[in-house]
Amino acid sequence: MKTKITKTLIESWQYTFDCAEGYEDEAMEDFLATLKREPKEPTEAMINGTTFENQCYALANDPQAIPEKWVNGTRKVAEIIRGGQFQVPVSCDLTIAGRDIWLYGICDVVKAGTIFDVKFRNKSLGSTDVYGKYLDCSQHPIYLKALPEASRFIYLVSDGDDLYTEEYNRSNSKSVEYYVLNFLSWLQSSPELMKIYEERWAVE
Amino acid sequence: MIQHGYEMDFSKQTFSVILYGAPGIGKTTLAMSDGNMGADTLLIDLEHGVSRTNPVHRMNANILSASTYEEVLKDLETDAAKQAKNIVIDTAGSLVDYLKDWALRTKPDAKTKTGAFNGLKGFGYVKSELESFVNRIKTVMNKNVIFIFHCDEKADKDGNPIQRLRCEGSFRNTVWTGIDFGAYIQMLGNKRYACFTPEDEFFAKGCHGIAGHIEIPNLKDGVPNDFLAKLFDSARKTMAEENDAVVGQRNQYEKIMAGVKEMLEGVTDADTANACMKAIMEMDHALTSKKEAGMMLNAKCKTVGLRFDPKAKAYVPDGDQK
Predict the structure, then answer these.
(1) DSSP label of A125
(2) Which of A156, A140, A169 has its CA nearest to residue A57?
(3) Which pLDDT tens digit goes with each residue over B1-52?
């Protein structure tokens, strides 16, 4: 039996450990909804993220386009991703701890050997420390594994005005196996959750 | 002047560096490690702390002391500034403080009614002036820029220590974007290390072969203070090697992508689409050209009413039974 793993699934599981104190129940509820693949109502933050991303694509495709909002941030991102391909699906097969896994993701942008991920922050970059935030993120290891021709992964983080970039490659990233193995080991300790995972995330 | 990739000369490549760590660990001395007793360095001493460094290592350095941001700008026009190879900003957090003072004095709306700093408007001025200041040093003056930051030890959610740059505003984040090397300076045992690879406790950045923990020499009598000079030389050498390795791939990538764009012009129906797909599969791909070409073909096919049939492994008219 082959099962699918995405960065959304791993991140939602990781969040049950990384969430702020007092939000543990909410984080677990969110993870269970992801595990059960229940549709979620998009939050305002998610809608802003999608709007920003689409504006960046539009401006990258047409330098004359005028962004409705977040003009400076949109321009900075569009300049970097112009000429790339957007929303590129990537996948690969893995065998981890005797399990067949199908790793799947959609890269925001692929351009000349680099994967870019566009992130929108609803808080100003001046209000909080962002650098190093993606060090433990499973996204870049997963995408670099699924697209072996790419050698770099760059997070493009904007608050709509400023741009912060954080770059990873294979030598400074944790392995995909590390994340997947930890996730599966955790699931294995709860047969009920493992059953849900195997049912909902099975692939042909 | 237009150069081919293979002609590029990295011997005069300049770099931007962040050095941060605890007080007294030797950040300023390290920042002046140009191998020439500071002669190649202009130190913008915004905290008046250079006196704490060993005089031997700053013997020939030019030290810029200023009480306002305008004085810093004026001093950057001097011959000493123009001749320096390295410009050290000691500290970047203080530069932001100087800029806050400058905004308060020169921008009426950077001040609240009570005369305090208006964070929202004021940091807007600070940010754009800081960008132009850094661009001027890096791009127009073409210098190596070394930003020194103090660091604050904070605790993560689980109480583990994490090191953060001490600096107000968005600069502590955006500064990393244009940085080549960012090192956290720490003591391990009785040795000092510059750490260029991020860890849970601190963020760092390395490239061109500079990574991990690099020991900082103990500057006993006669040991030259040349850590950064050697680091820059090593990075330049690696850049040239990387360029030699990559330039062929990059040229091949450009050639493939240009060829694919031309082929896509001819895609009008399922036959031409499938012929194009076959040609793409047979190309000698470089970097991510295969993936990108596939995406471009898919997008083009949609515009001419085709879809990919995974069973037939071919493009078919969109109206055909799925």
Answers:
(1) T
(2) A156
(3) 656 665 677 778 999 999 999 999 999 999 999 998 889 999 999 998 877 7
Cross-chain residue pair B288–A111, CB shorter than 8 Å: yes
Location of structure tokens 């929108």: A120
Among the listed residues B59, B70, B62, B57, the one whose alpha carbon sits nearest the alpha carbon of residue B44: B62
Query: Residues of chain B whose C-beta is under 8 A from some C-beta in A?
Result: 123, 127, 157, 164-165, 168-170, 172-174, 176-177, 197-200, 202-203, 205-206, 211, 249-250, 253, 285, 287-288, 290-292, 295-296
Chain B residue with Cα closest to A151: B287
Q: What is the ipTM of this complex?
A: 0.90
Model confidence pLDDT, tens digit, residues A61-98: 999 999 999 999 999 999 999 999 999 999 999 999 89
> How far is the first Cα of chain A from the last one, in angstroms, to the nearest whole number?
8
| Residue type, position B35, single letter | G
Q: Give the sign of the dihedral formed by CA B295, CA B300, CA B302, CA B306.
A: negative
Measured at the alpha carbon of residue A70, what is the angle toward residues B112 and B115, in degrees to the nearest 5? Answer: 5
Q: What is the pTM for the complete model shown? A: 0.88
Q: Which residues on A lie below 8 Å from B131 (Cβ)?
A: none
For residue B287, which residues of chain A lie inside 8 Å, CB to CB?
112-113, 149-151
What lies within 8 Å, CB to CB, of B271 at 6+ separation is: none
Q: What's the CA gap between B8 and B13, in Å, rounded?
A: 10
The C-alpha atoms of residue A110 and residue A150 are separated, in whole angstroms, by 8
